[in-house]
């Protein structure tokens, strides 16, 4: 018996660059192939979802899933500025058609971290022109495919740039002018402003980072990246997954609003939202102010820009704990995932409850999951997370769907293929799909 009401969407998520393969016109493809790349390996063929999407969607449907959140790759659609590739549009039309033929609701994301390389050469996500450029792309996609879609997420984890900025600022404070990049460690500590603060680590942000390069390799990589995009100064390179200015942070919101207006001008019936990376904030006595400040940075200050959206895509994997001095810490003895996150499946429901206090539209969990080689832990994670979400619905919170991350083991950005988030394993030597028991469990809900 389902724990969710009729019409509830149960599905899984992917991002085009992480699963499709050969996204040759994107900024990430450029950066993956630098001599001193921060990526531990290139994406290459990824898991060949571009050619095998029918098989993958059928596996979802056979397991009982009824929704699929995937991204349309801007760099495929518009490989050169102002030039749209109709063949690639037709590819995504067929993906949508395959979903519908298998009883799976397509939920499309227009920008999931990767951008066309030409956009970065124009100044990327710090250039105000990105607002109109993104809106133009959104309008084109809606004109071509919008009649087949009910849900569009404009931008994935629109707050990611600000979260990365905070990590980079902590690194700068740790370096203290010594020119040495510290190694990431959960047990490392740094003195800053007379406080003892945990060193920044890869698990502090919900995306695959490689912080273990060392300062020299990182500097060389930054210089190579600048040259690849046509700049002399590495600080001129502004991909979406890079540190930002306060103005760049809000520029993403303006791009979202412009894209939403463009989508609605073509098809006002499409439900439009954005997704945010969120943490459950858990302060000790005395740490409340720091936790509230963190929540405002993750969610609160974006509210004026999203309050009229049809839905919010909530994405959470774990919690953040704050001590009595307001410093973040990981509790001793807790289970950690491959991503160095604390295993804490209650986080998504805690985030949903807090979001619902201020955001009055629908909420769709667009990502929630765990990187682990032990599928029994993934199954337990799913059970607890969905049990808590069912309680949210029982309490009147308008949660409309749950998309597990991820459909398949895939390319986890700078970490390469070592992180196993998937409901389906992939033997990359043959591209054979191996469904895990967690896929069947999710479908049974």
Question: Topology of this structure?
Answer:
Elements: E1 9-13, H1 16-19, H2 27-32, H3 49-63, E2 67-71, H4 74-77, H5 86-101, E3 105-111, H6 117-121, H7 130-145, E4 151-155, H8 160-175, E5 189-192, E6 195-198, H9 215-228, H10 246-266, E7 271-277, E8 280-283, H11 288-298, H12 303-306, E9 311-315, E10 319-322, E11 328-329, H13 347-356, E12 362-367, H14 375-394, E13 399-405, E14 424-427, E15 432-435, H15 437-444
Parallel strand pairs: 1-2, 1-13, 2-3, 3-4, 4-7, 7-9, 8-10, 9-12, 12-13
Antiparallel strand pairs: 5-6, 10-11, 14-15
Helix pairs in contact: 3-5, 3-15, 7-10, 13-14, 14-15
How large is the radius of gyration?
Answer: 21 Å
* H and E string: EHHHEHHEHHEHEEHHEEHHEEEHEHEEEH
CATH class assignment: Alpha Beta
CATH superfamily: Glycosidases
The proportion of residues forming helix, as a percent range, comes to 25-40%
- Examine the coordinates and then state which fold CATH places here, giving the name of the CATH topology: TIM Barrel
Instruction: Tell me the β content.
Output: 15-25%
Task: Provide the structure class.
Answer: alpha/beta
Note the gap between the termini: 7 Å
What does this structure look like?
There is one protein chain. With 445 residues, this protein is an alpha/beta fold. The protein has a single domain (9-277, 402-444), classed as TIM Barrel, CATH 3.20.20.80. The chain has 15 helices and 15 strands. It has helices spanning 16-19, 27-32, 49-63, 74-77, 86-101, 117-121, 130-145, 160-175, 215-228, 246-266, 288-298, 303-306, 347-356, 375-394, 437-444; strands at residues 9-13, 67-71, 105-111, 151-155, 189-192, 195-198, 271-277, 280-283, 311-315, 319-322, 328-329, 362-367, 399-405, 424-427, 432-435. The strands form four sheets. An eight-stranded parallel beta barrel has the order 1-2-3-4-7-9-12-13, surrounded by four helices. Strands 8-10-11 form a three-stranded mixed β-sheet. Strands 5-6 form a two-stranded antiparallel ribbon. Strand 12, helix 14 (375-394) and strand 13 form a beta-alpha-beta unit. The radius of gyration is 21 Å and the shape is globular. The protein starts with 8 loop residues before the first strand and ends with a helix. 45% of the residues are buried.
